[in-house]
Amino acid sequence: MNNETASATVLIVDDDKNTRDGLRLALQNRYEVIAAESGERAMDLLSMRPVDILLTDVRMPGMDGLTLLQRALARYPGMVCILLTAYGNVETAVEAMKRGAYDFLTKPVNLDHLELLLDRALRSRAMESENIRLREQLSDKYGLENIIGNSAAMQPVFDVIHQASPTQATVLIQGESGTGKELVAHAIHNLSTRAKGPFVSVHCAALSSTLLESELFGHEKGAFTGAVAQRRGRFEMADGGTLFLDEVSEIEMSVQVKLLRVLEERRFERVGGSAAVEVDIRLVTATNRDLKERVAAGKFREDLFFRLDVVNITLPPLRERPGDVPLLCRHFLEEFSAKNGKPIEGLTPDAVNVLSAYRWPGNVRELRNTIEKMVVLARGPRLTARDLPPNIKEEVRRTGTAQPPEASAAPAAPGGGSLADTERRMILDTLARCGQNRTKAAEALGISRRTLHRKLRQYRQETGAAGEDAES
Predict the structure, then answer these.
(1) What superfamily would CATH give domain 3-135?
(2) Rounded to an integer, what distance in angstroms lies between the CA atom of residue 310 and that of residue 314?
(3) Looking at domain 147-316, does it have CATH number 3.30.565.10?
């Protein structure tokens, strides 16, 4: 007995008591079984408890089986519906399938056939649910909404992604390490007409030319020592979908020639083979180097560069979009708070100030790792400047781009005042810049809206005038 069967509930609907009792007796050892004598009673039961499988007669007084099927699936679309009838015909079966039935059986019911059908239906439903869950996870992880940023530097990136994704054009993504090039590649795939096809990724810098050629194009049995069987390459695996070549600048000349031919002819031979293999792929590549410089240095073929550089997306480094740092901090904070079971409300303004001033040589990847480390080691409900890694605080102090508020026991602020005064001015100034929009202000400050409300209430209690201004 599998887990799906053990926990499944079957609702039997038939106006004939003998049929209801017989099916209940046959199924009750493997399923939780409930029964109804009419379509109306079945709808009442469905409203009171979840049901996995609806097993209903077609011809019944009042609401017939087809009507019940249609109404039940309209309210509970994940339910499996199977129809039974003593008057089976092709027209009824076709109509049942059109209305969403999983299958159609004639009476008298073959119980062995019925149990096999129920098992198959439950496995199919479980697989569909898992596929939906995985698609949602991929969307959450790789969808365009996960590319965080509303700075001016990021708007051209979003525009090109939206324009290029529905096409078949080859895309070259350039940017420093850690800027999120693979994330953009996934977004292009997910927004394309190939979204239901495979997304296959190859990190070219990690493989020698011999291994990379075999990895990309596959090999025949006996092609080289250790090739004990035929192996498909990544081009074949990506057929009908997207192939992403990361660090494409590191591909050696011998492989560049073969890659150029594939792009021109859309076919290739496996290593050690002579038969042509045709593929339908969309190619997306990425590099953290300037390919034009590699071409000028004679390390990258110019004709291949032109083939790859049909649509170009250049990701700006994080230091050129410091306004996105609070948004990214909030996003990563939510991710790692949930992942580690630590309900952290947000970051204090002094922490956001330092994080925004740091130059982030490792870009978004470094920021993500920093927030994860801070969440794991945090001792309080909010991340403060004290939770920042020492190297970041020291670098910001050294460059003088920002003054961490905890640098002294009573940190100075513009015009003097305590840390509380500095925080208050920062919150009220940010709120004013955001046109009194608390949601935008909370995002800019890297704190939750609830925390912002609490602070504003506190200011109102301390000084009515300032609090009233903040609350207006």
Answers:
(1) Response regulator (3.40.50.2300)
(2) 13
(3) no
Would the CATH topology of 3-135 be identical to that of 147-316? yes
Q: Please state which of the four CATH numbers 1.10.8.60, 1.10.455.10, 3.30.70.20, 1.20.1530.10 is assigned to the domain occupying 320-471.
A: 1.10.8.60
pTM: 0.58
- Do 270 and 220 contact (CB within 8 A), yes or no? yes
Which segments of 70-157 are extended strands (E)?
80-85, 103-106
Token pair, residue 454, equals 């609490």
394-411 pLDDT, tens digit per residue, is: 998 887 655 433 333 233
Distance CA 172, CA 163 (A): 14
Contact 347, 442 (CB under 8 A): no
Q: ∠ at Cα 323 (321, 328), nearest 5°?
A: 90
Phi/psi region, residue 452 (left: phi>0; alpha: psi -120 to 50; beta: rest), is alpha
Looking at residue 248, its pLDDT comes to: 96
Residue 49 pLDDT grade (very low, low, confident, very high; cuts 50, 70, 90) = confident
